[in-house]
Amino acid sequence: KFPWEMEDFSKAPSGEEEQPQRRVRPPSLAELVLPDAELRRLRTMIIHTKERIKVKKLGITRNVVQAIHQKWRTSEIVKLKCDQEVAMNMRKVHEELEKRTGGLVIWRAGAALVIYRGKDYAGPPKERWIPTESVSKPKESVEKPEKSHVSGELLGIDTQFKEFVNHIPFIEAEYEMQMDRLLAELGPRYADWKGDRPVPVDGDKLPAIDHNFKSPYRLLPYGMEPKLSDREFTNLVRLARQMPPQFVISRNKGLQGLAKAMVKLWEKTEITKVAIKQSVQSTDNAKMADELKRLTGCVLLGREKTHMIFYRGKDFLPAPIAAAFEEREAMSFANKDVEDKARMLPTGKVTEKIVHVEQRPQETEADIKLKEWIKNQEEEKRRAIVMKAARAARARRIERRLDIAVRKKEKAEEALSKVEKLMKPREPSEDRETITEEERYTLQRVGLKMKAFLLLAGRRGVYSGIIENMHLHWKYRELVKVVYKGKDRMDIEDTAKMIECESGGILIGIYPVSKGQVFLYYRGKNYRRPEELRPHNLLTKRKALARYTETQRRE
């Protein structure tokens, strides 16, 4: 329907336009907690605060938090300035800053913000996670909470928000402490972690090569499908989505230490979440995932830009059970060797105990090695035959190409000899006109300033059309300017002398310019125009190009 056909459409009276409703900004935590007079006082102090802390592209790191607490020792407020990468999401920076420092953001504009330490500020906290006593006694911790470094105004708001700020629910705290104790055994933590607790292990500080590491022993239970069903896969991905990562890495290779820690963690949990450091360049999560799958044999559930999720697999066995299976397997192999040796003994020396061993046709270790040796010999013979046939085919192909090239060369030489028979260059004349150095210098200056010139590309060489054009130029002027595109020094000199002999002029000089080489020719004082401008002893333009083509074919 059109707007005027709708029932609830009402047109505003003429001259009175409805003002657009402005979106009301929700109040910040500082505006809810602090009185108006106190908030105005703090915002007035911002004008006199000149020093500021720069937040670089890594975000709110541990160094930034320490710098803020250092400033709070002498000042109530601290001004921060964020880089362009961090300033793209200032709301996240606002929340993370209040969460990690315990202060209140009282002013924010663009990429700058100011944080207030609070009225009852007593210094930075000593620990960032809940101690073990608070988990063992949840009721006492709820009834008698420890005094936090959060401002006194925060403690004066409603009870639900106070419990959210100062306390973690008991179930989450218990899980956090268990995971924290487990991660403490795996390796050092990542210092600049900005996400949820517990703080993950820094995989880059684990050893790149661990000589004691070996891939976990795997055995799939009887009757179980090795692959995950769609429902199982979906449930595992949903479960891992809410989990904080246990490891943080940036290396693409050298992950044996991380793989060993993941195998140890899989004894307690089925899923491992590995985060990727965003501040490091040249990270490739595809190479990381392939390396970890090769080392551990796990299943990759998901691979995003920021994290990877691994499932230990249905055939994973904890270390004690895997050791028992390996011991049992070693015992079975030992019994098999004893039975094989017993069968190889003479019949008369077989004891009564060995006679009752089941006589089943089994191959000894020597038979297996013999079969492998025979198989390798056959494979080497087959490979040698294939290589010999390939070499023969390659030789035939080279001979065929060589034969074609020889025939083409002979054909080009025959065509070139026919063309060169038509070319009979003149010999240099001994009776030539000479000029003085002063005349040569004057003609040089005049010739280099001339705009009209003859172009000699260099492929065809000197042909009859060049000499004809020179005589046409000499009809109206005494000098001829020839631009030659060749680059070989010997070829340049030979071409200049040949033009001088064929035209009968005087070579003034050879001068390099931006377009190539310039030949200047003076017609002489006793110049007489010949009856035939085009000489017959040189090739035509078409035959000169054919000569160049055949020369290239021969080469």
TrEMBL record:
Main location: plastid
Location of the region described as Disordered in the Swiss-Prot/TrEMBL record: 1-25, 129-148
Pfam family, one: CRS1_YhbY
Keyword RNA-binding: yes
UniProt xrefs under SMART domains: CRS1_YhbY
Keywords tagged on the record: Chloroplast, Coiled coil, mRNA processing, mRNA splicing, Plastid, Repeat, Ribonucleoprotein, RNA-binding, Transit peptide
UniProt-recorded Gene Ontology molecular function terms: mRNA binding
Protein name, UniProt field: CRM domain-containing protein
Species the sequence originates in: Selaginella moellendorffii
